Amino acid sequence: MSQTVQEPTVQQMIEDWNGTAVIQRHDPSTEAWIFIALHDARLGRPVGGTRLRSYPDRSAALRDAMRLAEGMTYKWAGIDVGLGGGKAVVDLPAPLEGEERELFFRRYGRLLEALSGAFATGVDLGTTPADMDVAAEETRFVFGRPPGSRTTVDPGPFTALGVISSMRAALAASTGSGSLEGRTVLVQGLGGVGLPLARMVAEAGGELIVSDMDEDRARTATDELGARSVAPEAIFDVRCDVFAPCAVGGILNDRSIPALRASTVVGSANNQLEAPRHAAALAERGILYAPDFIVNAGGALAFALLDRGVTDHEEIRSRVRGIGDALDEILRAASDRNEDTLAAAHRRIESRLAARPAIDDAGRDAEPAGVGGV
Ligand code: PHE
Q1: What is the rounded average pLDDT for all residues in the chain?
Q2: Per-residue pLDDT for 367 more than 60?
Q3: What DSSP string runs through 127-147?
């Protein structure tokens, strides 16, 4: 039986959104639609990555931008660096390479420059440091470039460092030892964060299991790291100590949670919970969920430090490791108050956000509502 679900219009979505504003632009040469969702500027100007991919329709692209921008508000608030939440999504109908790609990022750079700093951006899924280097020739509003440098830093390894530090904190809280030695860790997705994370887990003596839609990528990891690989559709059959979602959002949902055979979830994917209530569902099953926007803030933190002129990578790495300590505080607060970990993480950031006035009191939900997935 097929049923047509009416997609909300872009206008409807903007009406319902609790964010600040949406900037939209059509790029005629590529037929791409660009959505820049500015979620919250109470703690500072909106900054977030630019995601580039093809979406089924424009509302799906805008929805992704809105959710990811909201996630950025939480991510920045968690590390308290005086920046606000925003995200750009480029809905590109066909793959873009070579000169055409370069020309697109030049135009994109000029768009950011025309917006005079209303939004600053950096690398995200589907975009590369090289793309950002091109954009940065046209604008001052690219993040992740040390002052005076002409190349963009890859945030992936910093994000991965924050994730593995969080894994240690989560394991310490649940088992009494933060060591990865002999622990089974399932890394889902071997992209910009998943691959460096898999390397770190293997180096730390973890039993590594990987999964990626792209068989070549999975094979490279198994060859290089001695990992076991499982097919994407079989990940919930795997018993493991830590499940590290580093691919798509919405992976923790009504279907996957009952099937999950992990004791802990600590990964880099944005918006892992399909809905906020899934945090409680995980807690009910006795699975420790480390809130994604706390765990995956390593790249953002590195970028914020670079922006402030901190260029020593060792110093940046040591600050990023502190994400494990932040998670530890959240886990303690959750257990002291007998609440789920998402609620504890929200309380931590809400107090920071609520200290500043919101734009209006139009009745929309100005509190962090939790970031739905996909
Ligand atoms: N996209 C990455 C993230 O969400 C890195 C990034 C952070 C890019 C902040 C721009 C700004 O963490």
Answers
A1: 93
A2: no
A3: --HHHHHHHHTT-S-B-S--T
Beta carbons of 75 and 81 less than 8 angstroms apart: no
Whether ligand 1 lies within 6 angstroms of the CB of 154 is answered as no
The response to whether residue 370 sits with its C-beta less than 6 Å from ligand 1 reads: no
Residues taking part in catalysis: 87
* pLDDT above 70 (res 170): yes
* CA of residue 363 to ligand 1 center, whole Å: 30
Residue with tokens 């420059």: 113
Which helix or strand (DSSP H or E) is residue 122 part of? strand 120-123
Q: Cα(41)–Cα(49) distance, rounded to whole angstroms?
A: 16
Tens-digit pLDDT profile for residues 258-291: 999 999 999 999 999 999 999 999 999 999 999 9
The string over 226-249, giving b where at least 16 C-beta atoms fall within 10 Å of a residue's C-beta and e elsewhere, is: ebebbeeeebbebebbbbbbbbbb
Task: Check residue 5 and give its pLDDT.
Answer: 66
Q: Which two tokens stand for residue 64?
A: 């992704």
For residue range 174-207, what is the model confidence (pLDDT) as tens digits?
999 999 999 999 999 999 999 999 999 999 999 9
> From the CB of 303, is ligand 1 less than 6 Å away?
yes
Burial of 147 (0-12, 13-18, 19+ CB in 10 A): exposed
Q: Is the CB of 47 under 6 A from ligand 1?
A: yes
Q: How many CB atoms lie within 10 A of CB 190?
A: 26
Convert the pLDDT of each residue in 322-356 to its tens digit.
Answer: 999 999 999 999 999 999 999 999 999 998 998 88
Rounded distance between C-alpha atoms, residue 302 and residue 320, angstroms: 7
Q: How far apart are CA 266 and CA 167, in angstroms?
A: 6
- 208, amino acid identity: L
Q: Ligand 1: which of 39, 131, 143 to mutate, most ligand atoms within 8 Å of CB?
A: 143
* Best residue among 53, 108, 123, 127 to mutate for probing ligand 1, ranked by most atoms within 8 Å of CB: 123
